UniProtKB/TrEMBL annotation:
Domain 3-hydroxyacyl-CoA dehydrogenase NAD binding intervals: 6-184
Name of this protein: 3-hydroxyacyl-CoA dehydrogenase
InterPro entries tied to this protein: 3-OHacyl-CoA_DH_NAD-bd, 3HC_DH_C, 6-PGluconate_DH-like_C_sf, 6PGD_dom2, NAD(P)-bd_dom_sf
Pfam families according to UniProt: 3HCDH, 3HCDH_N
3-hydroxyacyl-CoA dehydrogenase C-terminal domain residues: 186-283, 413-495
GO molecular function list: NAD+ binding; oxidoreductase activity, acting on the CH-OH group of donors, NAD or NADP as acceptor
Keywords, in A-Z order: NAD, Oxidoreductase
């Protein structure tokens, strides 16, 4: 069947976003909301949005008029009877949604497809209360719908294959990429997003560095649009913390998804984020008022020789070239002199562990993270006993070309290493569980979360061997199962294959920087 008429039940911001792209694609959209006047208000607000787009030259007057003509406000839910597709976009409550679906079933024909825009509830559970669960699916959009060109198409255990095929086609007709996913907690995008948020919280709770510095390192060093803590403030903890707890419990307390007591405490205190003026940061008129400035660069007049140790020859060459450019004298001896500053480019370790592995005096050692772009931002990490003048020298040396430098406390895997490794590893697990294809996982996460790369492409770009090394070392040091490497990652690293490789496509994709 081709979908010509769509009914939308729930006309909030998300619902009207779906209505907009459907109407703009030529579909008649029937609008119903149980709240009196809500559907009329939703259409009026959308009219203003379309007129603003017209004023900017993005839509013609004819486009606006035709789109509005396709939007029909209903007085009663019984008027959805002729719809080919019904989309539910109401409150995230299983019992309320089940009741609504049963009501819709009593109105529409047996051929009508029924879908939920749920972001966290089981589609199988939603369908279980229905007479025809085979025509029920998930159709999860992201806000703002017109700009976020991705929709997850979720098959419940009873969903018929033609229903999924029709929804994928419908998504494409509206200009969105439809990605098929199994009915698992968080589906693809909210599942994969657990790594960024929970690891940022864990780093903060371990006292590795400050709120501002966690966000700065991941923005400037790793290329994220927002750090995890400022992102929490934007989405609000009264939304994001329950999702973290829900996914954690739905996966039977798998350590990969473990929430953090800090956000529960902040939620209890009402410090939920930007909308109330207090979260990880304080806000006035939606602007941060207490973000820390970048760390001041120490004034160092005399520099000791610098000895370089590294896990990878490539990293050593980058560091030596940089030091030569800055006029810093190198200590090229096999073992450093007693006065030299020792810089270690290492992966997955804390500085103490790395210093002992290299046989060095930890008082002289500062480690540096070489996983992220060296030209964008640098993170250095002294050991517990590194002498202050060596810390100051390392900070000053790596800031000589005006590049930002963060000095953090000891941590396994720095900040960016452990965060990126967790993101990539969790995406590998999603692929291993066959929740979706590797390609769909990659595209869905990139579009849905706005990451610089899809997580599997990112792993290829950074090097699967490096990501695996980070996880193996963190696992060995912490004995925390949250860092266990995915079999998907281990096998592809061992065989030199792309993380996008699967037997279904039988192609070794060579992913380079996009």
């Amino acid at each position: 069947m081709a979908i010509q008429t769509m009914a939308l039940v729930g006309t909030g911001v998300m619902g009207m976003g779906i209505a907009q792209i459907a109407a703009q694609s030529g579909v008649q959209v029937l609008l119903f909301d149980a709240r009196e006047g809500a559907a009329t208000t939703g259409k009026a607000n959308l009219k203003q949005t379309l007129e603003k787009l017209q004023a900017k030259g993005k839509l013609s007057a004819s486009d606006v008029e035709q789109t509005l003509q396709r939007l029909v406000v209903l007085d009663t839910i019984e008027q959805i009877k002729e719809a080919d597709l019904v989309i539910e976009a109401i409150i995230e409550n299983l019992e309320i949604k089940q009741k609504l679906f049963k009501q819709i079933e009593s109105i529409v024909s047996k051929e009508t497809i029924l879908v939920s825009n749920t972001s966290s509830l089981s589609v199988t559970a939603l369908a279980a209360a229905c007479e025809h669960p085979n025509r029920i699916a998930g159709f999860h959009f992201f806000n703002p719908v017109p700009l976020m060109k991705i929709v997850e198409v979720i098959a419940g255990l009873a969903t018929d294959e033609p229903v999924i095929a029709e929804l994928l086609t419908f998504a494409k007709s509206m200009g969105h990429l439809g990605v098929r996913t199994k009915d698992t907690p968080g589906f693809i995008v909210n599942h994969a997003g657990r790594a960024y948020s929970t690891e940022g919280l864990k780093i903060l709770s371990e006292g590795v560095t400050s709120v501002s510095e966690v966000d700065r390192i991941l923005r400037e060093g790793a290329g994220f649009r927002m750090g995890p803590l400022e992102l929490f403030d934007l989405t609000a903890l009264d939304v994001s913390h329950p999702v973290m707890e829900s996914i954690y419990n739905q996966f039977y307390q798998d350590p990969r998804y473990r929430p953090n007591p800090l956000t529960r405490q902040m939620l209890s205190a009402g410090h939920v984020g930007r909308k109330v003026g207090q979260g990880f940061y304080k806000y006035v008129d939606a602007k941060k008022t207490n973000e820390e400035a970048a760390q001041a660069v120490p004034n160092v007049a005399i520099f000791d020789k610098v000895w370089i140790g590294s896990d990878l020859n490539h990293d050593a060459e980058i560091l030596k070239n940089y030091l030569n450019q800055q006029g810093i004298e190198l200590d090229d001896a096999e073992e450093p002199s007693k006065e030299s500053l020792c810089i270690l480019a290492t992966y997955g370790e804390d500085t103490t562990t790395a210093a002992l592995r290299f046989g060095l005096n930890a008082q002289h050692v500062v480690a540096i993270d070489m996983l992220t772009d060296f030209a964008r931002h640098r993170t250095v990490m002294p050991s517990l006993i590194t002498e202050q003048h060596y810390i100051d020298q390392a900070h000053a040396i790596f800031a000589k070309d005006q590049t930002g430098v963060s000095v953090i406390n000891e941590s396994v895997g720095f900040v960016a290493q452990r965060t990126l490794a967790m993101i990539i590893n969790l995406a590998c697990d999603i692929a291993q569980q066959q929740i979706a294809t590797a390609s769909d996982i990659d595209q869905a996460v990139k579009l849905g979360l706005g990451y610089p790369f899809g997580p599997l492409s990112w792993g290829d770009h950074l090097g699967t061997d490096r990501i695996l090394l980070i996880l193996e070392r963190i696992s060995a040091i912490t004995l925390d199962p949250r860092y266990r490497p995915s079999p998907w990652l281990q096998r592809r690293a061992a065989l030199g294959l792309s993380l996008l490789f699967s037997k279904n496509n039988a192609v070794n994709h060579n992913i380079t920087q996009a």
